[in-house]
């Protein structure tokens, strides 16, 4: 595990039930533009579901990838009250942003 991965997981853990954030938002909170590296860190998340990587989506609102498959990710989000239509989430309604960064 790298320090970067640990920072990604620490931030992701802060996303509350019923909200989502984006790979881009997490990268910005870490002071980087390494959006893909955020996705890579979440793909190998050993702390799921305590670190809720299913709550991280693309910056266009698309659900994006998930180790257990997109259908499982959508099911988990819907189970938390997030409305998913055509594999897309209304970020204005469900977006969680980080007030403080590393």
Question: Descriptors for this entry?
Answer:
8% strand; Arc Repressor Mutant, subunit A; globular; two-stranded parallel ribbon; 102 residues; mainly alpha; two-stranded antiparallel ribbon; 5 helices
Structure write-up:
It is built from five helices and four strands; from the N terminus they run αβααβαββα. The protein has a two-stranded parallel sheet. Strands 3-4 form a two-stranded antiparallel ribbon. The protein is mainly alpha-helical. It is globular. Helices cover 39% and strands 8% of the residues. The chain has one domain (3-86): Arc Repressor Mutant, subunit A. Helix 2 packs across helix 3 (35-43).
Layout of strands and helices, then pairs:
Blueprint (H helix, E strand, L loop, with lengths): L2 H10 L8 E2 H7 L5 H9 L12 E2 L12 H10 L4 E2 L2 E2 L1 H4 L8
Parallel strand pairs: 1-2
Antiparallel strand pairs: 3-4
State the gist of this model.
The chain is mainly α and 102 residues long. It has helices at residues 3-12, 23-29, 35-43, 70-79, 91-94, and strands at residues 21-22, 56-57, 84-85, 88-89. It is 39% helix and 8% strand.
């Amino acid at each position: 595990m790298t320090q970067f991965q640990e920072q990604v997981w620490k931030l992701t853990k802060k996303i509350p039930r019923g909200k989502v954030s984006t790979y881009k938002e997490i990268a910005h909170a870490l002071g980087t533009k390494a959006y893909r590296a955020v996705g890579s860190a979440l793909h190998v998340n050993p702390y799921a579901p305590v670190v809720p990587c299913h709550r991280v989506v693309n910056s266009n609102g698309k659900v994006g990838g998930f180790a257990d498959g997109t259908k499982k990710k959508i099911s988990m989000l819907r189970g938390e009250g997030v409305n998913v239509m055509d594999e897309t989430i209304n970020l204005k309604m469900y977006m969680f942003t980080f007030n403080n960064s590393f």
